[in-house]
Amino acid sequence: MRSTIWHVPDGMTSAKAEKEANRQAALFEEKLKTGMALYDGNTTFGEYAEQWVKNHQCAGKTKDGYQELMKRIQPALGHIRLSKLQPHHLEAFYQNLAEKGINQRGNYAISEKLPLLLKAEHLTYDKLAAASGISSFTVSTAVHGKHVSFQTAQKISKALKKPVEAVFTLHKNENPLSANCIMHYHRLISAILSKAEQEQLVVRNVARLAEKPRVIHKEAAYLDDEQAKQFLSLILEEPDIRIKSALLLLLFTGMRREELCGLSWSDLDESSQLVHIYRSSQYRPHMGELEGPTKNPSSVRAIKIPLFVVQTLKEYHAWWTSQQIAFGKEWQGKLQRLFIQENGSPINPDTINYWLEKFLRKHNFPHITPHSLRHTFATLNISNGVDIRTLQSLTGHAQASTLVNTYSHAIKSRQAAACDALEEVLTGNLAAEKQA
């Protein structure tokens, strides 16, 4: 049961008091519906934070990220009363995140014994998947000696009725979380406390007073002119038409990988050589691949691509159509997505990373990510004289300032070239006058 008290101001008539009491009751009921009337002086930060994450309007993947951050925030700060939370509590939490061994992300398990164990137990991938409660694809990944999570290793080992150490070799990451990662925790805590401050549940947002992690700005990883030319020449020799098409689009459009996975054939305008970006595709645990909006309204855009890329996409469409015919009634490509699994289902955006890693290993090319190709697109455009506003319309950034901060290396290079050009104009004239 929850209740609230409203005191009738002195001098208010009975009729007005009744009317205002009804209004206050309606407001209180609305707060109950949204979970915001559950708090009093004994409310803990964890209770309030849980409701904030639940009710906050944001993209599904963003909410997944918040819930992942809460797994560390709750044990450390959740028990503290909201009104008693102090800057030193947050600073101690940030220091703990910076300790060695706290980072679980680099942990992985790998097994060379699984093929023999499956053979001895007469188990197929599907049977082990059913017994483990994981997908057949994940089982296949583990059987082929690739990295899997500790949780996956535990599920497989439990299904085989063996200790996890008897099946897998566990590799633990002893590194701390990066300062940039710790900043994600700080920003979430600050957003939660800002809402509490707005609702007058706390006097102030103590996150603003806490010493924040010091993030060292790093230049975006990108390919320079020569590396980009070499990368392109290797792409053009790629026999896998899916990988070839995906990497060409990333290099010549600078789109995000989620936007790439959201492309449908109707988004291509071959006659105008345009790629239209209207949506993104995201993967969410237990829900699979989901269609969603672009990162921001500015990300809805059209980008022109070279004619030879259009021709490559035509070749890719022929392969795509052959797959559709081969699968017949089993075809799952109703959304007409460009980049698909063998049966036409949309791919997980992580597949783009896998394709790129496979491509880089084959050619012994330096490590880059799909986002590095986005940085390459932006950097090469700036270096070749494209202004920030035009580039913003191509990359879909919400703020031009983001481009200025991220690509300062290329902008400084252009500034230096502009200064050299001015020097040439002015001193060249002086030299000509002296000679005259």
UniProtKB/TrEMBL annotation:
GO molecular-function term, one example from the UniProt record: DNA binding
Entries under InterPro entries matching the protein: Cro/C1-type_HTH (IPR001387), DNA_brk_join_enz (IPR011010), Integrase-like_cat_sf (IPR013762), Integrase_catalytic (IPR002104), Integrase_recombinase_N (IPR010998), Integrase_SAM-like_N (IPR004107), Lambda_DNA-bd_dom_sf (IPR010982), Tyrosine_recombinase_XerCD (IPR050090)
One GO BP: DNA integration
Pfam annotation, one family: Phage_int_SAM_3
Keywords: DNA integration, DNA recombination, DNA-binding
Domain Tyr recombinase: 218-420
Highest rank taxon of the organism: Bacteria
PANTHER family: INTA PROTEIN, PHAGE INTEGRASE-RELATED
Role: Site-specific tyrosine recombinase, which acts by catalyzing the cutting and rejoining of the recombining DNA molecules.
Protein family (similarity comment): Belongs to the 'phage' integrase family.
Name the record gives this protein: Tyrosine-type recombinase/integrase
